């Protein structure tokens, strides 16, 4: 059964009360084993078909990520991979699921368009009775991140800015548009991560001046990632409100998170980074209708 926000895992607080209390809550995730993972085309700056890919290593690294989620008590469901869709492992791109409603992605690139029907079919048969395929290009949780009552929505390289209005009408939640300007950070989830309902971490150079001003206004206490941590996709992370799973070599970001009372857990997904993806890319959160504050 889907978890609710009352399913608390653990709470942490500095003995002197100097760091905030952090509460972890159970999550329900969807993942896709990288059985057919490869880099055979290039649709972002990270992808180079000339570089060899070790699919068995990618599977082993992905399995470790899945184990971490299970060890933390989260539910992990699996969608079957489809031959000929090497990027299907990046489940976050398949849809956005909020309040029990699923908006299925409409991919920009021809190489990925067949992923959308596979995710729609899975959602339809696993408790989401009426998943809707987006009319405008959006790439799921790659560009839509739920924080508190808002959806932060990225554009600039993949998702059509008009899709933000479509998402707002569908979910009935305020959508905050953010423009990405660095092609290395082509999805919002490569440049920003949600830590809890009030806290985010992000990489300022990835955003336009106006979008950066919005982030500074909305999240004055945000964690700011360094160039080095952003470059290893340290912000492509997941959080249950206390435990933050992130690339193991984002060491500076991990130290910042620890200082804020979070528990960073590093994993190695270096093989999947060859296609421009890491922890969050592999993880689609399934939020049921009774999960009002999934990011707390």
From TrEMBL:
Alphabetized InterPro entries for the sequence: DDAH-like
Which segments cross the bilayer? none
What is the main EC category here?
hydrolase
Q: What is its EC number?
A: 3.5.3.18
Q: Which domain of life is it from?
A: Bacteria
- The signal peptide here is none
One term of GO molecular function? dimethylargininase activity
Keyword entries, A-Z: Hydrolase
The family annotation for this protein states:
Belongs to the DDAH family.
Q: What name appears for this protein in its UniProt entry?
A: Dimethylargininase
State the species of origin.
Streptomyces wedmorensis
